[in-house]
Inverse folding.
């Protein structure tokens, strides 16, 4: 996790906490050393984020604090608009609506002189392939990923073989012609990739899987790197 991501995550953890959060708890959550955590806290305080803390008590974020608005450069706006445009064309319906709403909000939030960048670039992406059709609500899948929930999956593979799986969804990989659920499969006891348009049905099991999502993703990355090295 990059430093900027850690700083943002610290603010998010403190914002959602109902009691002071100790340095050790934050360090464990971010999977960093206490020394790194203390440096991050000093950086946040230097940036005038209203965090208070006492030895043995923990850190607290003052009520009412919100992240300052981002000052985006033209290149950053181009990247945001084009990325949202791609999602608007290739994401599932609820995610596509979110992408279109993001473009509208960007055009309202940025200074007036930068608005033509959003209007000029927001729908420039082109694809000759249709987006995959799915039989489930993509919002359910994304909720399971965010909340680290197990999913029950009824799947039909490319050869027509049916199976039912219990998976730990890690993230969605997006391609022009397909979307893949990257996951740990309890049934096969290994990492598996499932095309979303081959999923017949899915539902949340209601149980959290027992490892950190970030840890599972690192294990998946290591597995993929080992496979590539053998080719």
């Amino acid at each position: 996790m990059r430093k900027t991501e850690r700083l943002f995550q610290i603010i998010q953890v403190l914002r959602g906490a109902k009691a002071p959060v100790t340095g050790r708890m934050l360090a464990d959550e971010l999977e960093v050393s206490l020394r790194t955590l203390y440096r991050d806290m000093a950086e946040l305080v230097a940036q005038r984020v209203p965090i208070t803390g006492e030895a043995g008590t923990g850190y607290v974020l003052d009520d009412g604090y919100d992240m300052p608005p981002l000052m985006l450069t033209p290149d950053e706006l181009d990247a945001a608009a084009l990325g949202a445009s791609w999602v608007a064309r290739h994401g599932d319906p609820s995610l596509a609506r979110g992408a279109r709403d993001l473009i509208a909000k960007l055009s309202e939030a940025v200074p007036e002189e930068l608005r033509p960048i959003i209007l000029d670039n927001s729908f420039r992406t082109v694809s000759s392939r249709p987006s995959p059709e799915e039989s489930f609500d993509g919002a359910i899948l994304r909720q399971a990923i965010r909340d680290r929930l197990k999913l029950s999956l009824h799947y039909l593979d490319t050869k027509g073989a049916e199976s039912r799986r219990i998976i730990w969804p890690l993230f969605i990989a997006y391609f022009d012609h397909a979307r893949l659920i990257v996951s740990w499969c309890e049934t096969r006891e290994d990492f598996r990739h499932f095309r979303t348009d081959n999923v017949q049905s899915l539902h949340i099991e209601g149980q959290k899987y027992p490892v950190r999502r970030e840890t599972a993703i690192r294990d998946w990355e290591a597995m993929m790197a080992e496979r590539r090295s053998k080719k």
Q: What stands out?
A: The two ends are 29 Å apart (CA to CA). Confidence is low (pLDDT under 50) at residues 121-126. The beta strands are 51-54, 58-61, 149-156, 162-174, 179-185, 190-195, 199-208.
